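Q: May I have one protein plus its fold?
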Amino acid sequence: MQPRLIRLVAVGDNVVDRYPDLGVMYPGGNAVNVAVHARRTGAESGYLGAVGTDEAGRVVRDALAAEGVDLSLLRTVDGPNAFATVRLVAGERRFTGGREGVSRFRLSPADLVRLAAADIVHTGECSFLEGQLDQLAAHARRLSFDFSERPWDYVEEHARHAGIAILSSPSGSRDKALALARRVRALGPATVAVTLGAHGAVLVSEAAEAAGSAAEAAGSLGGSGDVVAWGAAEPVAVVDTLGAGDAFIARLLVGLARGEDLPALAVAATAYASHACTSYGAFGHEAPLSKETR
C-alpha cells in the first residue's frame, strides 16, 4: 500500500548561497531547503517566504518551481534577495558574509488559515518569526522548529511552541547530544533531534509520536519512557556539507508524518543527509555569479 501523501509547508528564510571561489550561486535557506527535500522524498510541499525582484530572487523562485514546490504563498517584494557568501574548506561550508535583503515578513491571518491545512509546518531560527511563533503553534497541526546552534536561553524561550525541535551540535558526543535532546524534550516538544554532523544524529520522541517503535528496538538507545534512536552518518565522498542538516530535517519530518518506525527513520534521515553532501549547493540548480550578484 502506498504511504499517505503528506503535506508540508516551510515558512521563512531563503537565500542564494554565493560561492565566489567557484563563480556560481545556488538557491538555499533552511525553509527553502526543507521544502525542496520534502518534495523529493515524496511529500507535497509549499514554501511561504519573500523573494526579491533581482536575479537572485529569480534563481530561488525558478528552482522552487522546477522542483514542484507549491508557490501559492510566495511573496515577491521589490528589492534585493537575501544572500550568503560561502567558502569551502575541505568540503566543509563556511559562511563569510551575507545580507537579509527583502526576506523579513509578517504572517497574515490568511497565511495562518492556509498553514492550518498542512500536516507539518516548518520554520527556524533564520526566519525572524519568533514574534509570531505562538500564532504559528496555535494554527499548525504540528510545528517543527530548527534551533540550529542557538544558545540555551533561546531554546528555552521558544521550544514550548514546537512539537518537533531540531538542534545541531556538530562537535558534541552522542552522550551529550542525548542529554541535550532529553533536556529539550522536557520543555514540551514531542520529538527532539540533535544532529552531530559527520557523527550522525540522536532522536528522542514520546512513545505516542513514535508509533510502531519500541524503546529496545534495533538502533534504539533505550530511555525513560521515550523512544530514543541513533542514526550514524553514511561514509560518502564529501563535496559540500551545505544544506545537509536541512536534508535531514526534511526526511525526518516526512517520516514522522507517515508514522515511520523511529529507529529506522533515524537511519534513513542520516543517510539522506549524508548523500546531500556529495554535490555542491543545498539541492543544486547552479547559476553563474554575475556583476549584479558578486
The chain has a mean pLDDT of 92. The CA atoms of residues 66 and 244 lie 20 Å apart.
